[in-house]
Design brief:
Largest sheet: 9 strands, mixed
CATH architecture of the largest domain: 2-Layer Sandwich
Oligomer: single chain
Bound molecules: adenosine-5'-diphosphate, magnesium ion
CATH class of the largest domain: Alpha Beta
Low-confidence stretches: none
Length: about 700
């Protein structure tokens, strides 16, 4: 591991970066000019790719991949499991003289045929209907990893329905571009041909020593600890946040950066997070599609590199109770092909009608489709975070900051908006420079915060793909922009109409703007008064996918058909049910085979000790008191274990009923029985000689890295 670390330090970084990517520079070098230009056209404008062009690209790609040590190629796709899938074929092909040659055709580049029947389809496919296709996504560059050429692809059923996360994302990028270009044209920006959404996802994760991980069936099976008493110290002292990075962690981070850079992932910022053993990595933002692919790669690479250092990377949203869980901050903006960031307020935002119009569109979209954003960040794992006093609340609101809020209020009141000039921050000593003060302070508690020239959606869970939140954001904003475009088309005075659109948007949707503390109880009451939805669990959140309003939206913008929406609702329920079921079964197994025997052994030992002590001394009150407490707790534990067993059997037996009913049963009966059982076990852990407790403690896992 030292070798890799040193290599990262010595080799010129610019040579390492993207060295395993079939990127633009390599394409330009290796492809005939006409082929290169044709491919660029497809990448930039979505024009249809000529099969002959694909043939030439495939051949160049193969030669390049072979030079990088690849022996195989794989279509790389993102089925509804949330992780990526790959199936490798070697380049070899027999030649007439009995030897082999290396081959890779345009057809193999463009289309793959993995078996679709074993991936979640939510009823779109029956098990006997096996045919599925992967289609080359040339907007995300191919790369070499572990001796294979990886080709990013979309994945669909024989009938053409999307079975993956990438297809709706690509469709939504087109939808947003169409509507944004339309609006910009009406504002006089004729030169803009395409608008892309950009994303920089900050990724949180935990690292623990592998020797502890190996002893915890719960971590192995479910990714989170199902038992574990709170350590005397958690994150109380806040000494981990941005704290000095330990050597072992630093070596991991350095290796990780190196691996990611080779694959063209622009890992940029790394630091310790709030919880002990928690860290974060942020890349430089990219187009949404590439950012999504890169985030998947980042998660996979984190896991892989951690093992090299004797560590395990936990991406679960809540691996440890009592300390912060992990999320993903999805920084999102829109930019034009001539380099304008549409959410850049500039120095005088009050005069920037274009900015204010796009800002209004986002505000309106988030308010009208809060339920869709909520489901895009919902999962059994994330249910432990959202609304749990650490991560954003389950209520969607927008933080804008004082300056922008004030401008919008003035517009609503019909006044000419004005704003204060940027001020300097005096640090009170001549040796320090004066700092330019940002126009807004930060707000860490808002689920959807404006941060300078982008919005940061903070609800997403650390293990989730960012595809769903981004295709949702793209589509809901496209919808509002399309309504604005309709109003602007045929307007006599565009500026007046823009002003009235902003005014109406503020008037109708200011309820979603909230600059205060999103973690406070008062906000929950206030939000209810404002009529904002507070969707507490995944099971409730799925309703958003089934609502007529949202189906119409996705259908109108050609992002998802009604059938695809229905299938996705089914999949969300199924994944929820399976996740809780596995957790319950794991808890039952650990209780029966690890915890109960340990408690019983210790209790017997204590009984034997009491007998021995009694022979020499009459007073065994202390020992007996402990014995009585343990006996009482053991009785509860055993009782609650039977209850969990029963609840999980009942919920599991509901498989013939509607999945929403079954998911509700898991949430209401099974999850609560799990919580009760855990409380018993955690209490017992604190009563029993640690030598008897069969699981590594929270203190060991969180602090002994
Ligand atoms: P924070 O202070 O919120 O932790 P970071 O610097 O860690 O900020 O992360 C901010 C992220 O936002 C980075 O990934 C950065 O590249 C990204 N970002 C910056 N500008 C844009 C933009 N215009 N569109 C999308 N993402 C952006
Ligand atoms: Mg952030």
């Amino acid at each position: 591991m030292m070798q890799a670390t040193e290599a990262a330090g010595t080799a010129a970084l610019s040579q390492i970066f993207g060295s395993n990517v079939f990127n633009d520079a390599i394409m330009r070098q290796t492809l005939p000019k006409q082929t290169y230009q044709a491919l660029r056209r497809t990448i930039e404008t979505g024009s249809i790719l000529d099969p002959q062009v694909a043939e030439v690209v495939a051949s160049a790609m193969k030669d390049w991949a072979l030079s990088k040590g690849a022996t195989h190629f794989t279509h790389w796709f993102q089925p509804m499991t949330g992780i990526t899938a790959e199936k490798h074929d070697s380049f070899i092909s027999p030649s007439s003289d009995g030897r082999i040659i290396m081959e890779f055709s345009g057809k193999e580049l463009i289309k793959g045929e993995p078996d679709a029947s074993s991936f979640p389809s939510g009823g779109l496919r029956a098990t006997f209907e096996a045919r599925g296709y992967t289609a080359w996504d040339c907007t995300s560059p191919a790369f070499v990893k572990d001796h294979s050429l990886y080709i990013p692809t979309a994945f669909c059923a024989y009938t053409g329905e999307a079975l993956d996360k990438k297809t709706p994302l690509l469709r939504s990028m087109d939808a947003l571009s169409r509507q944004a270009v339309r609006v910009l044209k009406l504002l006089g920006q004729d030169q803009v041909k395409r608008v892309t959404t950009t994303v920089g996802p900050e990724q949180e994760y935990f690292l623990i020593d592998k020797k502890y991980y190996d002893q915890r069936i719960d971590l192995i099976m479910t990714g989170r600890t199902l038992f574990g008493a709170k350590p005397p110290k958690g994150q109380d002292l806040e000494d981990h946040y941005f704290g000095q990075i330990k050597d072992r962690i630093a070596a991991f981070m350095s290796d990780l950066d190196h691996e990611l850079w080779k694959m063209g992932v622009s890992a940029k910022t790394k630091h310790n997070e709030v919880a002990p053993a928690q860290h974060e990595l942020a890349p430089i933002f990219n187009t949404t599609n590439i950012a999504t692919d890169h985030n998947q790669l980042t998660m996979e690479t984190m896991k892989k590199i951690a093992l090299r250092h004797g560590l395990v990377c936990l991406l679960h949203e809540k691996p440890f109770a009592g300390v912060n869980g992990s999320g993903k901050h999805n920084n999102w903006s829109m930019s034009t092909d001539d380099g304008q960031n549409l959410l850049e307020p500039g120095k005088t935002p009050h005069e920037n009608q274009q900015f204010l119009l796009f800002l209004s569109a986002v505000i309106q979209a988030v308010d009208e489709y809060a339920d869709l954003l909520r489901i895009s960040a919902a999962s059994a794992g994330n249910d432990h975070r959202l609304g749990a006093n650490e991560a954003p609340p389950a209520i969607i609101s927008i933080f804008l900051g004082e300056q922008l809020t004030s401008i919008l209020e003035q517009i609503e009141a019909g006044q000419i908006a004005c704003c204060e000039a940027q001020s300097l921050l005096k640090l009170g000593t001549s040796s320090l420079p004066d700092l330019a003060k940002d126009s807004t302070d930060r707000n860490r508690t808002s689920p959807f915060a404006f941060t300078g020239n982008k919005f940061e959606f903070r609800m997403v869970g650390s293990s989730q793909s960012i595809a769903q939140c981004n295709f949702t954001l793209n589509t809901i904003v496209a919808e509002i922009l399309s309504r604005y475009a309709e109003q602007l088309e045929g307007a006599k005075n565009v500026a007046d109409v823009v002003n009235s659109l902003i005014k109406t948007a503020v008037k109708d949707h200011k309820r979603v703007i909230f600059n205060g503390n999103g973690y406070s109880d008062d906000w929950i009451i206030e939000a209810e008064k404002r009529g904002l939805p507070n969707i507490r669990t995944t099971v409730e959140a799925v309703a958003a996918i089934k609502s007529e309003k949202n189906k119409l939206l996705m259908e109108t913008h050609h992002v998802l058909s009604r059938k695809e929406m229905d299938s996705r609702a089914e999949i969300q329920y199924e994944i929820y049910i399976k996740t809780i079921n596995i957790e319950a079964l794991t808890m039952i197994e650990m209780s029966r085979r690890q915890l109960l025997p340990a408690i019983i052994s210790y209790r017997s030992q204590l009984a034997a000790d009491i007998k021995v002590i009694q022979d020499i001394e009459q007073d065994t009150s202390v020992e007996k008191k402990l014995f009585a407490s343990i006996s009482e707790a053991l009785k509860n534990f055993s009782q609650h274990l039977s209850e969990l067993d029963q609840a999980s059997e009942q919920a599991s037996a509901m498989h013939s009923q509607e999945t929403d009913k079954q998911a509700e049963a898991y949430r209401d009966q099974v999850v609560s029985a799990m919580n009760t059982l855990r409380a018993d076990a955690d209490e017992l852990e604190m009563m029993i000689d640690r030598k008897y407790w069969p699981l590594p403690s929270y203190s060991a896992m969180l602090f002994n890295v």
